[in-house]
Each structure stands twice: as C-alpha cells, then as structure tokens.
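Shipment paperwork, digital attachment
Item: protein structure file
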Amino acid sequence: MKVLILHNHYQWPGGEDLVVESEEQLLATAGHSVARYDRSNADIQRFTISEHALLPATTLWSRKSALEVQQVLLQNQPDVAHFHNTFPLISPAAYSACRAAGIPVVQTLHNYRLLCPESRFFRAGKPCERCLGRGVPWPAVLHACYRDSRAATGVVAAMLTVHRALGTWREMVDVYVALSEFAREKFIAGGLPAAKIVVKPNFVHPDPGTDRDGSDYALFVGRLSQEKGLGTLLAAWKLLGDRVPLLILGDGPLRGKFEAQAKILGLSRVRFGGFVDRETILAAMKRARFLVFPSECYENFPTTIVEAFACGIPIITASLGAIREMVVDQHTGVHFLPGRAEDLAAKVDWAWMHAREMEAMGQAGRAEYVAKYTGERNFRMLMNIYERAIKTRAAGVFREQTKP
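Attachment content:
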C-alpha cells in the first residue's frame, strides 16, 4: 500500500510528532511505501512581513499547501492520505486536493482543535467546554483562549466556523481516528459524524521491556506548561516535606518559572533534567518507583502513559478525561483529584510506603500494554482503518457518479 502522511509540526516537539514518526516506521517496516508532506511552525519565524500579514488567510485556506499536495499526489499516487495536524500552515485546503484526486482521507484527532480554538478544552487553569457544539465558538474569542489574543483566537474561530458551514469536516474526511472513547464522545457531541469516527490508541514500538533496576525516585515526563499540572506537583512535594526524590524531564515555555518555584519552596530533592530523547526517558522510567501525571486538562492520549505501562511502572494520575479511562484506579495506578495538591501528596505518600502494592500495579500496567498498545496490534488497526477509508471513498465516488 502507498500512504501519504501529512503533518504540520509544532514549535515545541511533543508526543504527537513521536506518534507520526512511529506510525511511519511501522508502515515502512511492513513493506509499505510512505511519502511525506510536512510543514513546520518554526518556518513562521522566517516569514516576510507580507507572509505574516497573510497568515490568517493561510490558516483558513493555504493555496501553497494545496498546490504542493497536488504535486505530491501526482508524484506518488498514494492509496490513502493520512493527516495528523493541519494547523496552521497546511490548512483544510489539502483535504480538497486529495478529494479532487480521488484519494481517501484519514484524519487522526490528536487534540480538540476542531471543537475548541484553544485545542485542549482548557481555560483559567481548568477544563472548559463552552465552545463545544457551538457553530461559532465565540466564547473562545471573548476569553482570548488562543495565545491570549482575541485577534489570533478570532482567526482560529473563523477557520472552524467557515469550514463547518462548508461541510469540510463532514464531507472531506473519510475516517476520523479518535484516540480514546472519551475523545470520540466529545467529537460526536461537537458535531462530527459518529459513523466516521473510529478509536485507535497510541502505542509504543519497539517494546522497551521491563528490565527495572529499582532506583528510588518519582518521575514526571512532559511539556512544562500550565495545563500539565506542574504547579500542583510542586505544591504537593512541599507538603511531603521534600523527602521523596523527584525527577522532572521535559522542556517548555514555563520551565524557568517552575525551576524558580522549586527553589522558593526549598525543594532540594526535585531535579529538572530538561528535554531528553526517548531512550533516556525509557531508561529513567525503568529506574523510577512510579510516574506522576498531574495534568489538569483533557489529555487526548499521552504516549507517556503507554510508555510507563510498557516499562512496568505504576502511575499516579489526576482522574480526568481519557486518563481516567486509561489508568484504572488501584489496578494499574492511583487516581487523585485534579488540581488538589493535598490529595496528590497523600497518594504519593501512600505509594512511597507501599512498594509491593505499587509493583503489582506496574505488572498490571504491563499486561495492559501487551493486550492493547503494542506496535503489532496498532499496525493491524491502522490497516483496517486505511481499508475502511478506501471503501468509503469508493462508495462516495459511486454515489456521486450515479446521481441523476
């Protein structure tokens, strides 16, 4: 099978980029032909004044991307086009290029951008669903949810409103891939056709194994930004009396703020390791007692959770959104109340004192990985999705050709 993968990279690398690369590797290893069309938000920094002025229009409809995708389609003749992120440089125009060429379209829903201009249902430090189901997401503009700017938010809101009115989300995509049942229900509530949405979780490949060496520290892995719950995490560690070592791996716009906060709180046993590669993350997981995941937004499907399962370490997580679905309380991990430092501190204290029970939860997480999140299982699901998209597009073409 020939597959075209299309992805707009973010300024800060994250789990979404990792998923794109992992799926490409799965396809290539299985002998399928993979072509790529990539744009990057880093390019925006090099835009001319006129290009910056045209960025709002580009977000709505990028003629450049549409023309370039047309050329890629002609050169590679793919059987299916698999979109990951189109915002802001690829734009929905690329769907039309595929539709005109008769190429089936699959869109993975890595975040909630089609329903929420901010993309995470997150405002003022907690989940917000005020734009869910609205034809025009005006509350986001009112609250300047995207980049703290009403103008920038207005551009995203206009893009969503126009393409809803045009029927882009209903007509131009043959199969949507939601990463969890929680996400699927949100997208249905937001107006996407239920019949087009399938659930395929993220995965970890190759299997990192469970060769643990038992160092004594707790671990956080993720982007250092407000919605990830770092403030709650550090407050909980203050309540613990700084007696539990904590390693924080990751980078982000608020790293300096959180490092300063740790110093102010006197957290001498909290160490910031910065951005590291995946191999280093997996090695750190195998040395950790448990992973702490304090995110305060609707995480879609963080690969970090699956990596912890694969390594056989238990997870202490905020009970929120899809994570509540992924991590079963007292079976594969421990839940705490989102944003509640006191509850997190109590759960960490219990976990630190009950190593045997936590080890059993880690083993249960490993069983979850083997059953649900291996590369082999994910590859089979991906092939079924592509076949479904091809059949859907063929049926659509037949209906269009037989209209009176």
